[in-house]
């Protein structure tokens, strides 16, 4: 990563947790950190605005949130360059827009509005679904967030679509001095049907193992210093990845964008890991 890292903050505990995590990531990569706050964040997360609201007081609060976040980041990082800004626009739109100029966008798992009890905040979900750069959602248990396992997990599906996620995962493992576990989940429908030859099962398994090999072959040759473990595991992808996340510092998944009448969407596996993983999740767009 050679571009600035952007982190979205709203003053909530999850966003400050994401801020600290982003500081450590930016420092490890040797890139500047850009702290962004939208003055409309509370409206987006479920806060009901009053008609008597003083817009100048909103601006003052927003500037305070950013200034406090920048001060916190600088005290944690030392000499690393940290900047902050308030954007008067929809928070998800703002982060997607400015994120296009960044190496990645970091967000917390939830906001501080009336919907803060959701598993994943609406801003985080929207940014992960629409950003054109990797989005890192900081969530999970303390040990996972603190990089206590020294393990990055990468989920791959179709090897032809996995190149960007693979490269991102290798760079994360390299920068964090972590090992990399590459997983491909597969299922054999024939096992659910009586009197089907076991040859079908073996064929599915062999094909799955080939997908893993094809997905990481070039990256392994380019990054021989990264310790890589490859596994093709029979089961539902969401279950396989969520189980692996328990012992990971970061879970990396690709996102195949689907353009429709409601915009770009995430698939069911992406939704599952974003809502339930016990470690930070990186969503890397492709397609």
Amount of beta strand: 15-25%
Largest sheet report: 10 strands, mixed
Q: Which class do the helix and strand fractions yield?
A: alpha/beta
Task: List the domain count as a whole number.
Answer: 2
End-to-end Cα distance, whole Å, is: 20 Å
Pattern of helices and strands: EHEHHEHEHEHEHEHEHEHE
Mean pLDDT: 86
Low-pLDDT segments: 43-52, 113-119
What is the CA-based Rg, rounded? 20 Å
- Count of DSSP H/I helices: 10
Tell me, what is the CATH class of the largest domain?
Alpha Beta
What is the 3D shape? Answer: globular
Helix content: 40-55%
Q: What is the CATH architecture annotation of the largest domain? A: 3-Layer(aba) Sandwich
Question: Strand order within the widest sheet?
Answer: 3-2-1-4-5-10-9-6-7-8
Number of strands: 10
CATH topology-level name of the largest domain: Rossmann fold
Plain-language structure description:
There is one protein chain. This protein is of the alpha/beta class and 287 residues long. It contains ten helices and ten strands. The model is unreliable at 43-52 and 113-119 (pLDDT under 50). The two termini are 20 Å apart. Helix 1 packs across helix 3 (55-77), helix 7 crosses helix 8 and helix 9 runs parallel beside helix 10 (268-276). Helix 1 (13-29) links the parallel strand 1 (5-8) and strand 2 (33-38). It folds into two domains: 5-139, Rossmann fold (3-Layer(aba) Sandwich), CATH 3.40.50; 144-286, Rossmann fold (3-Layer(aba) Sandwich).
């Amino acid at each position: 990563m050679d571009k600035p890292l952007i982190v979205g903050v709203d003053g909530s505990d999850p966003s400050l947790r994401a801020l600290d995590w982003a500081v450590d990531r930016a420092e490890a990569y040797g890139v500047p950190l850009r702290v962004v706050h939208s003055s409309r964040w509370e409206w987006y997360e479920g806060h009901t605005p009053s008609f008597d609201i003083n817009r100048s007081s909103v601006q003052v609060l927003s500037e305070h949130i950013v200034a406090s976040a920048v001060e916190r980041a600088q005290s944690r990082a030392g000499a690393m360059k940290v900047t902050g800004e308030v954007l008067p626009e929809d928070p998800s739109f703002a982060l997607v827009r400015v994120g296009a100029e960044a190496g990645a966008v970091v967000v917390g798992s939830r906001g501080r509005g009336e919907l803060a009890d959701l598993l994943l905040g609406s801003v985080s979900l929207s940014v992960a679904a629409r950003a054109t750069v990797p989005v890192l959602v900081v969530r999970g248990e303390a040990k996972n967030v603190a990089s206590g396992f020294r393990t990055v997990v990468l989920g791959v599906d179709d090897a032809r679509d996995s190149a960007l996620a693979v490269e991102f995962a290798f760079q994360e493992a390299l920068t964090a001095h972590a090992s990399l576990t590459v997983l491909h989940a597969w299922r054999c429908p024939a096992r659910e049907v009586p009197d089907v030859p076991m040859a079908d099962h073996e064929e599915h398994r062999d094909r799955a193992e080939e997908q893993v090999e094809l997905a990481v072959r070039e990256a392994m040759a380019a990054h021989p210093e990264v310790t890589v473990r490859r596994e093709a595991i029979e089961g539902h992808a969401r279950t396989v990845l969520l189980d692996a996340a328990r012992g990971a510092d970061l879970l990396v998944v690709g996102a195949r964008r689907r353009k429709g009448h409601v915009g770009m969407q995430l698939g069911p596996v992406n939704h599952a890991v974003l809502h339930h993983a016990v470690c930070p999740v990186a969503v890397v767009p492709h397609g």
